[in-house]
Specification:
Blueprint (H helix, E strand, L loop, with lengths): L10 H4 L12 H12 L6 E4 L2 E4 L3 E2 L4 E3 L2 E3 L4 E2 L4 E8 L4 E2 L4 E7 L4 E2 L4 E3 L2 E2 L4 E2 L4 E2 L12 E4 L2 E4 L7 E3 L4 E2 L4 E2 L3 E3 L4 E2 L4 E2 L4
Parallel strand pairs: 2-5, 3-6, 4-7, 5-7, 6-8, 7-9, 8-10, 9-11, 9-12, 10-13, 11-14, 12-17, 13-18, 14-19, 17-20, 18-21, 19-22
Antiparallel strand pairs: 1-2, 15-16
Length: about 200
């Protein structure tokens, strides 16, 4: 049995409303969840449309937000980043220049260096992604698009065609590494530079 809190300790304290939802079904629910939360934010956030940015966060020029997006306290977002499709950034997160984040939750003190893509994923706290590393969310090259993961040592169909990864707290992903759809990384995992992770071949 997969228990998300064993991988991302603070997830349900931040999103208690998702406690009854299967992990693989969460990315499409990030948008409506954040839309509800936007109306509950205090005046420490600057809200424009469906984007809320904490007043202590730093956002450089030419960043594109396609909400709903919530950027928490003391985050940094570098120039030309593209944040879309329902994204939550926990406190003190870094999204470097040229990154794209889509339908994802990224917990506190995690960092995307630059030129990263994270799609339809749940990222723990204290995670570091070096430059150019990718979390893929769809098998474009396969006729069978269903995503599988290894759960309790068994190849398991997730029943979805878009899902990136669960990245456990404190994991490190090296430059230009690729996590295939359905990747599950235990806390404190290390992925080498240029490594391809494909757990359910």
């Amino acid at each position: 049995m997969f228990v998300l809190s064993n991988y991302i300790h603070e997830f349900y304290s931040v999103f208690p409303e998702l406690d009854s939802i299967e992990t693989w079904g969460m990315p499409p629910l990030i948008e409506p969840t954040l839309i509800k939360r936007l109306s509950l934010l205090g005046d420490e956030y600057s809200v424009k449309g469906l984007t809320a940015i904490h007043k202590t966060a730093l956002v450089e020029e030419n960043v594109i937000f396609k909400g709903p997006v919530i950027v928490s306290a003391k985050c940094f977002i570098g120039a030309h980043a593209y944040i879309r499709g329902g994204v939550f950034l926990g406190e003190q997160c870094v999204v470097g220049p040229g990154c794209e984040v889509k339908s994802a939750v990224i917990m506190s003190k995690s960092a995307l260096a630059h030129f990263n893509f994270v799609g339809d994923s749940l990222i723990g706290s204290g995670v570091n992604m070096e430059a150019g590393s990718i979390i893929a969310n769809h098998f474009n090259e396969r006729e069978d698009k269903i995503i599988y993961s290894m759960i309790d040592g068994r190849k398991t169909a997730l029943g979805v065609v878009k899902f990136g990864a669960v990245v456990g707290d404190g994991s490190k992903i090296g430059a230009n590494a690729v996590l295939s759809p359905g990747t599950i990384l235990a806390p404190a995992s290390v992925v080498k530079r240029l490594e391809l992770i494909e757990q359910a071949v």
